[in-house]
Amino acid sequence: MFPECNDEDTRWVLNNALKFWRACPTKRCRRARSCVGDTMRCHKIFWPVVPQELKVWWRAVLDAKRTNRTARQAGRLAETAAAEWRKREALMQKLRPPK
Ligand SMILES: [Zn+2]
User: Fold this and answer.
1) pLDDT for 5-21, tens place per residue?
2) What b/e sequence results for 63-78 when a residue is b if at least 16 CB atoms lie within 10 Å of its CB, and e otherwise?
3) How much distance in Å is there from the Cα of 34 to the middle of ligand 1?
């Protein structure tokens, strides 16, 4: 979990952006197609299964927000961070010994 997710508003934005409501145990969330329940409960359930690349993307967005970048700059920084992550992952795959 990102430290920023201790903030209710940020957590709600992430829960919805990542569409946690699709698999939410709270029926109300699924029906509303939005996080309308306990945002911390949902976050704790679903955050661990968010793909690493998406986490890298969001980490960059939150960093950009903290340093007052525009939404457009944030998007660009996040794309770059995700691309770098993919490159690093591909390299790691090559370094891994074959099974
Ligand atoms: Zn929910």
Assistant:
1) 999 999 999 999 999 99
2) bbeeeebeeeebeebb
3) 7
